[in-house]
Amino acid sequence: MTEQELIQDFNKNRLHVILAQLAPTALLAFAAFATPEIATYSNYLKAAFALILLASGILGALAEYSAASQAQAAIDDLRVLPGKSALRSRIISFRPWLDVIKFVTPTIFIAIFATILLGLYY
Question: Each residue of 55-64: pLDDT tens digit?
């Protein structure tokens, strides 16, 4: 692939990361506000609510992980091409931050999910 194609691929995957965060973030924000009310519901409805959050979180994390991994692959390919443009150097320097998306973001989701579960049942 050419430098331009790799940069376009990186940008496409960066956009996918952003879009993959929107639905789970909105759902967690809704859950934070709805949890006090839902905590008064039956255990079956609370479990259904928790499972919806869990499924959304898992799917969102997988989408983010996949897009971040593909962006890292584009950076790895970009790194071995000849030439040194400023844009290319900036993109290459961003590679370690994609690990935040792959590992830190799901960890934060788990912490929020656990906190919501505590709010539902205690």
Answer: 999 999 999 9
Which residue range forms the structural domain that includes residue 13?
A: 3-121
Contact yes or no for 47/121 (Cβ under 8 A): no
Taking CA atoms, 84 is separated from 43, 90, 94, in Å, by: 59, 10, 15
Please classify residue 3 by burial: count the beta carbons closer than 10 Å to its beta carbon, then call 0-12 exposed, 13-18 middle and 19+ buried: middle
Number of domains the chain is built from: 1
Strand segments, DSSP code E, in 1-122 are none
**What is 84-100 written as a DSSP string?**
--HHHHHHHHTGGGHHI
Q: How far, in Å, CA of 53 to CA of 36, rounded?
A: 15
CB within 8 Å of 16: residues ≥ 6 apart: 63, 66, 67
pLDDT digits (tens, 9 = 90+) for 88-99: 999 999 999 999
At residue 75, the 3 state secondary structure works out as: helix
CA–CA dist 2, 58 (Å, integer)? 34
The pTM score is 0.87
